[in-house]
Amino acid sequence: MKPSLLFAAFLCxxxxxxxxxxxxxxxxxxxxxxxxxxxxAGAASTDRVSVLESGGAQASxxxxxxxxDLGGGxxxxxxxxxxxxxxxxxxxxxxxxxxxFNRNAYVALAKSGLGEVRLGRMLTAYDALRGSNxxxxxxxxxxxxxxxxxxxxxxxNGQAEVKGSDYLARGNNTVLLRTAPMGPxxxxxxxxxxxxxxxxxxxxxx
Length: 206
Description:
globular
């Protein structure tokens, strides 16, 4: 089957799954904390700031996910997930987005024993490695690795401001391939493309 026809069939399958609404679940996490911080972004590094914030140990979110068994070891599924701030009731800014299902929004087709392909907005393949080195992988407030990867208005512990180095964990227009477990290992690769008008190839003379 040609790649274009394969993707067309994949999208049709995902759309049919969503319309049937079989195996759809609502999920979420509500996490809030109150306390004091010494190195609050936007405040002097020596100031103590009293806060009530969302997402201390886990980022608050809600979402929808569904799946359907297509037979022959094939299954189709989708995930729609939005970050929320419990302290304000607004949508959380996640990877440069504060609208819609900004944490995850993708459809997937999986084959038992082989793996799956995902299309949409999601975490990249690199986050499988990044997450294993974060003692609180999905923490908004307490994970120390946030100081390493974040590039906010000010860095923690009195360090100089960091600009332009923040890693956007979630990519738009992403295709991700993920293998089934191979013993203790899982391999994945992803690519995120930008949107825009297609450029005409330039002709060069001899």
